[in-house]
Amino acid sequence: MNELQQLFDELKKSIKEDNFVKLTLSKPVSKSFELPNVYVRQIQLKGETSYQFLYRYTTNDQVKNYSLEETIHELENLLSEKFRAATLFTLGKDFLVFVSKKKKVSYKTSAPSFKNKLPEAHDKPKEKRAENSPYLHFLGITDKQGNVIPKMADKYRQINKYLEIIEAQLSTVKLPNQIQIVDMGSGKGYLTFALYDYLVNQKRFNATVTGIELRENLVNYCNDIADRCSFTNLHFVAQPIQEYDNDKIDILIALHACDTATDDAIYKGLVSKAELIICAPCCHKQIRQQVKGVEQESPLLKYGIFKERQFEMVTDTIRALILEKHSYNTKVFEFISNEHTRKNVMLIGSKSNKKKDTEQIDKKINDLKEIYHIDEHYLETLI
Questions:
Q1: Which long-range contacts (CB under 8 A, 24 or more apart) does 367-370 make?
Q2: Domain ranges (residues) in the chain
């Protein structure tokens, strides 16, 4: 298809200028292919640059590696026969391709979704990111020999999963040379210490981490461990989230901050225009209490346990929509397995240059509120 030449020219240009991030194929011509997407990324294989195709079938994933010439040939075949859309992600822009049923090709550009390139390792090994650090012993996760204490194995897995998520998100945003990180509702500091050690001591980021925690005994406990570990740019402060007044935040974290404390934290992130806002919401009482006694039409809300879960989803969906309205790309996913805790949803907002349709987002929020007879979401009242 000669009509695809513009895509191939843009692909070659992005590779030549070293700002190629990835390429995604979507909108399959037929569901019978059982291949919803293909993802293409650049890798280094035996010292040579190759392009790895991840064929994401509905039942399994298949991977093949091609040269640039083979890549263009494969893309031409796929867009001629199996897919109607492609997006070329570069550091300068997103380049969108649409193929009609009559094989007519059209193009569109938009602001870039990525601010950093993806890693080019062929096989990314599973790594333990929290390893051999004294904070693990001081917090009671490992013994003196560095072995994980059996009853703390779940917490150790949670720490490594958390660091894996953080690492993946760092590639989606552009951070300053001196990074200011604030962890609101830091508690005993398991994840706060892990983040500091991983970013500062392992990855050599120039970062300052501040933990905000209401309970003074925990703040004193964590500051003592930070001193014993010589974590000089890790500090804990005893104060309510609402009273934290430093508007210089690059990464805002709020894990299991109770009920509307999550909204207070998100608001602080929005005000400071944080590049990353990472939350694991907890409790979700505000909307449930607001609609208490209000008759709901949905049969899903007849039973108490379903009502609780439904309003958790509604609360977090409105939070995600509010983040989108303020120019954040949002993700909601399972943080850790349900077998450890049901409070396992993680909500992430990464700052975007793309202009959002605020009227459409407002409509979605208002529609949700109308369906469930909600007067207001607490986060809305803060903004």
A1: 368/314, 368/317, 368/318, 368/321, 369/318
A2: 2-110, 134-382
